[in-house]
Amino acid sequence: MIRVLIADDQAMVRQGFGALLAAQPDLLVVGDAANGSEAITAARRLDPDVVLMDIRMPVLDGLAATRRLVGDRPGSARPRVLILTTFDLDDYVYEALRAGASGFLLKDAPAADLVHAVRVVAAGDALLAPAVTRRLIAEFAARPDRDRPRPTTLAALTPRETEVLRLIARGRSNAEIAAALVVAEQTVKTHVGRILGKLDLRDRAQAVVVAYESGLVAAGE
């Protein structure tokens, strides 16, 4: 069972999402929270696999709560955070990824998308839609090159792993990367796993941030 905690300041949203997720045979809604502070307390008590986190909440917003949750525990013990967004909050997308979020979900997304998103994030994958990737690119395009750190952290990667990371940063799926490099999809999965391990990253979302922050991939490429 995938244990889910829902954090949103609107009671109707919490109840609606809760009813939808609870109807799935593999999902268990263990609790909810009306603000980021409550979400942190509930997560520590209930040990969810996934926290569905709104950004704009009173007392403590979703960004601050995500930083606290991700920093609370080491490695796989940390819950994965799925951010609820309207996608018009461009400034928050990049900051949420840096805070440790594993993905984004539109608040008005179809019910099936919500269920799929929770399963994807719980499985350890990142839910990073092309629309989010474009916003990330726009964010980095607006920054002077001098603000980006040198890519010394990428020295541990092999040339092929570096190539795979570039494709990840461009929003390519494993299947698309496999086709571009003319290799098996399982080989790509192995490369992705090694990249995340060498760079101490949780998922593909963080890999995208590192690729652009380090200057490995430039906006507009």
TrEMBL record:
<feature type="modified residue" description="4-aspartylphosphate">
    <location>
        <position position="54"/>
    </location>
</feature>
<keyword id="KW-0597">Phosphoprotein</keyword>
<feature type="domain" description="Response regulatory">
    <location>
        <begin position="3"/>
        <end position="122"/>
    </location>
</feature>
<feature type="domain" description="HTH luxR-type">
    <location>
        <begin position="150"/>
        <end position="215"/>
    </location>
</feature>
<keyword id="KW-0805">Transcription regulation</keyword>
<dbReference type="InterPro" id="IPR058245">
    <property type="entry name" value="NreC/VraR/RcsB-like_REC"/>
</dbReference>
<dbReference type="Pfam" id="PF00072">
    <property type="entry name" value="Response_reg"/>
</dbReference>
<dbReference type="InterPro" id="IPR000792">
    <property type="entry name" value="Tscrpt_reg_LuxR_C"/>
</dbReference>
<keyword id="KW-0238">DNA-binding</keyword>
<dbReference type="InterPro" id="IPR016032">
    <property type="entry name" value="Sig_transdc_resp-reg_C-effctor"/>
</dbReference>
<dbReference type="InterPro" id="IPR039420">
    <property type="entry name" value="WalR-like"/>
</dbReference>
<protein>
    <submittedName>
        <fullName>Response regulator transcription factor</fullName>
    </submittedName>
</protein>
<dbReference type="InterPro" id="IPR001789">
    <property type="entry name" value="Sig_transdc_resp-reg_receiver"/>
</dbReference>
<keyword id="KW-0804">Transcription</keyword>
<dbReference type="InterPro" id="IPR011006">
    <property type="entry name" value="CheY-like_superfamily"/>
</dbReference>
<dbReference type="Pfam" id="PF00196">
    <property type="entry name" value="GerE"/>
</dbReference>
